Amino acid sequence: MNPDSLLLYKLMILYTLSRVNFPLTNGQLTVFILEKGYTNYFNIQQVISQLLDDNFISVHTIRNSSLYRITETGSETLRLFDHMISQGIKDDIESYLKDNKYELREEVSTPADYYQIKKGEFGAHLSVIERSTPIIDLTLVVTTEEEASKICNNWKDKCSDVYSYLMSSLLEDI
Question: Taking the model in full, what pTM does it have?
Answer without folding.
Answer: 0.65
